[in-house]
Amino acid sequence: MAQIPLPEEARRAAEFIRRADIVIGIPSYNNSRTIGHVVQACYAGLAKYFPQFTAVVVNSDGGSKDGTKEAVLGARVEDRHLLLLSTPLLAAHRLSFPYHGVPGKGSAFRLVFQMARELEAKACAVVDSDLRSITPEWIDLLLRPILSAGYDFVAPYYHRHKYDGTITNSIVYPLTRSLYGLRVRQPIGGEFGVSGRLIDRYLRRDDWETDTARFGIDIWMTTIAIAEGFRVCQSFLGAKLHDAKDPASDLSAMLQQVVGSVFMLMDEYQDGWRKVTGSQPVELFGFRFDVGLEPVPVNLDRMIQAFVHGCRDLSEILAQALAPETYREVASLAQRLASGSRSFNIEDRLWARIVEDFACAYKERAIAPNHLLRSVTPLYLARVASFVQETETMGSAEVEARIEELCLAFEEAKPYLIAHWDRLAIPSRAGRKRGAMAPGPDPRAASREVPS
Question: What pLDDT shows up at residue 431?
């Protein structure tokens, strides 16, 4: 695939700056209310922790109309209000560019990564533009494992409200953990640190014009890093306070694109994950502490009704996508709820089979992928509703223990996934289509290379 060149404005800026040790990327779209604080935190973090490095802060914008660019360029850090451990030696450049390509976060990331490669950066961090809890310490925690300890990928580790991040908790974390054997708790967290050599790998890929460029970019980055044996760690960032949404609100497009990216990568990396059993912890940097969290409202009735209507309207697709026994259990539950019952539970074992059945159906391609992925939404909402009912009175530690139980259920169900996967007649051509690299070393072994 031909490389898409940098936009002219970005190319001229890169020629002027020439070299930078660190690039920080902030993708945005109409985030003028919050992005100024994010820029200030990035500047303060660079000044406090990396004064000896040259740095560039790049805002990659999707065409904001609310003054986001002006907020970035106008954000100020009042030095007299900062207690720095050392005096800044080198000032950071600040740039704001519109990105080109498929609308979405992935295209914004590509522009950031292209700038990092053009400037021969040693490390790059990306942070969301709607953050209200970011601190200067985040910059240190995302970059230092790369610059000082030789890691290639730093995933975030947050405390989040129990109903924030339901796509992560119910699907993405349990499934990716069971597939690749590493317990990366927030694989679609939004904040990451990336080494120069991993950026080169990302930019050599030819799937930037797919749905990856919308909401699938985070899991795409995480999966490639793990599956290809790059050195992976996590950093504890405290609380993630951002513009969270009710799980019952319209997250269907995000769900479909994230889950579609997970399933696409399963096909590509099947030779590796089929050999993995169980899972292992990943090195965690930073000091863990309890934090206060903002509540996330949920609408149980809306989720339940979406499940009942979805099972009725999508019955043919669900009957084809799910194994017969799985479909009977789902249909029976929908019938009970349609008759007025509100007490129900989608147990972990059943939910793991549902997700794995969908993964196999995606590989088989008997159902158009967009139709298949849309049919995931009502079942996901039912699982979230079940989880909300079960955990309503639980504290954060109890909820995390429940998520751990779900992850173990996915790991225990993996032989079921492999048996179903191996029965499919269509061989994987994903690696040849996307020019995948040969499988790297066991990523779990790489994660254990922790400096003393």
Answer: 42
